[in-house]
TrEMBL record:
PANTHER family according to UniProt: METHYLTHIORIBULOSE-1-PHOSPHATE DEHYDRATASE
Name of the top EC class for this enzyme: lyase
Pfam families referenced in this protein's UniProt entry, alphabetically: Aldolase_II (PF00596)
EC number of the protein: 4.2.1.109
Record keyword Amino-acid biosynthesis present: yes
Amino-acid biosynthesis keyword on record: yes
Protein name per Swiss-Prot or TrEMBL: Methylthioribulose-1-phosphate dehydratase
Keywords: Amino-acid biosynthesis, Lyase, Metal-binding, Methionine biosynthesis, Zinc
Catalytic activity: 5-(methylsulfanyl)-D-ribulose 1-phosphate = 5-methylsulfanyl-2,3-dioxopentyl phosphate + H2O
Length: 207
């Protein structure tokens, strides 16, 4: 049974987040997808193909954690990447996927590398459990594919071994980030994208 009040509340909050992310230029041309957990076994996710800067509460679908819709409409083509995270981590309450220029360009500029190491940045402290700049966080870069179930399986095996990983990149595609709730997820995404921009700039300066 879907909690319709919670569904509406989450949909309004995700639509507001979408406006903000669109203004930043991180979800151009209907790209990106967003979700929030409803309960232990379900989440709401953006409907496929919608403009993510102009979402209304009707542009969301409830799905189970096998990525199957449990309300009417067509959920995001990448729903399995969201539900994989909810299924693996019971503490996760929100997942955001963006096509920011930094995530897209840096993942392509790092052709041939499957790990991005972020070290010594003060802003690493925005990630859960980090309280010093004197540390490193590794972000995996997965190859892009239209086979979303296979990508979800790859992300799942990586995250089984690296449960503190705060997000991942898909090469030439974008970034996935998650958090205990939507505000936490937005904060982590903002920090991660800032760090990706820093890495990109360092790469430019070193070439
Ligand atoms: C507009 S191309 C982007 C899509 O292929 C996809 O990567 C994406 O992020 C949005 O897909 P969607 O099905 O709307 O959730
Ligand atoms: Zn995408």
């Amino acid at each position: 049974m879907i909690d319709s009040k919670l569904f509406y509340h989450q949909a309004v909050a995700l639509a507001a987040a979408g406006e903000d992310l669109y203004q930043r230029g991180w979800v151009p041309a209907t790209s990106g997808n967003f979700s929030c957990r409803l309960d232990a076994d379900s989440a709401i996710v953006t409907a496929s193909g919608k403009h993510k800067g102009r979402l209304s509460p009707t542009d969301f679908i409830a799905v189970d954690l096998n990525a199957q819709p449990i309300s009417s409409g067509k959920p995001s083509a990448e729903t399995a990447l969201h539900t994989q995270l909810y299924a693996r981590f019971p503490e996760i309450g929100a997942v955001l996927h963006c096509h920011s220029p930094a995530a897209t360009v840096l993942s392509m500029a790092m052709a041939g590398k499957s790990l991005l190491k972020l070290s010594d940045y003060e802003l690493l402290k925005a990630f859960t459990g980090i309280d010093t700049h004197a540390t490193s966080v590794t972000i995996p870069i997965f190859a892009n594919t239209q086979e979303i179930d296979s990508l979800a399986a790859k992300a799942d095996s990586y995250l089984a071994e690296h449960p503190n990983c705060p997000g991942y990149l898909i090469r030439g595609h974008g970034v996935y980030c998650w958090g205990s709730d939507l505000d936490t997820c937005l904060r982590k995404l903002e920090a991660l994208d800032f760090l990706l921009q820093c890495e990109l700039e360092q790469l430019r300066l070193s070439r």
